[in-house]
Write a structure and sequence with these properties.
The protein has 128 residues and is mainly β. It is built from no helices and eleven strands. 0% of the residues lie in helices and 52% in strands.
Amino acid sequence: QVQLVESGGGLVQAGDSMRLSCSVSTHAYGYYSMAWFRQAPGKERDFVAVINWNGGYTDYADSVKGRFTISRDNAKSTMYLQMNSLKPEDTAVYYCAVNWGQLRITPEARRADEYDYWGQGTQVTVSS
């Protein structure tokens, strides 16, 4: 079993920065990719960013490219999302997810149904 816990959300103003963290707890050993998704009220859960098992490959949604940076520290079993130049349209609940056993990132990594485990989400609100 894999448990994910997000932290770092809150209320900020447009143009501010924020860093989200996702801590992974598991007794299993293996490789996995990790991703961030977000869901605004009344909308579907959208892909934000993905990172492969060793941090050597990343991919971003066009809406956040150049502003957000995904990273991971496997020694700490933690993934991060550094969000800069935040906009009101970034307001959403942010979820981290794990695709257990995935070594190579494919285009399907942008689909929520590719992921096996999810965190409970953390609210990010950006005021104008």
